[in-house]
């Protein structure tokens, strides 16, 4: 939020955790997608999973 609003970064590194790893640590299905070619398979597997699932999609905001 601070970077998006162009506020000064103060006493924090503002790095996101690996949400997919966090989901797996909690017993859910978690997968991190960095390549758009892998997205369809990741979503299909998440929807097929019996239980909670998280698909973390890494995007490049500069690519718009």
UniProtKB/TrEMBL annotation:
Pfam families: TPP_enzyme_C. SUPFAM superfamilies: Thiamin diphosphate-binding fold (THDP-binding). Transmembrane segments: none annotated. It comes from the Bacteria. GO terms for molecular function: catalytic activity; magnesium ion binding; thiamine pyrophosphate binding. Gene3D superfamilies: 3.40.50.970. Residues 12-57 form the Thiamine pyrophosphate enzyme TPP-binding domain. PANTHER family: PYRUVATE DEHYDROGENASE [UBIQUINONE] (PTHR42981). This is Thiamine pyrophosphate enzyme TPP-binding domain-containing protein.
């Amino acid at each position: 939020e601070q970077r998006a609003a162009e506020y000064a970064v103060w006493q924090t590194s503002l790095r996101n955790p690996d949400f997919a790893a966090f989901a797996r640590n909690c017993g859910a299905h978690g997968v991190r997608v960095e390549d758009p070619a892998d997205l369809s398979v990741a979503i299909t597997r998440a929807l097929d999973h019996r239980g909670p699932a998280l698909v973390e999609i890494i995007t490049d905001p500069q690519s718009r």
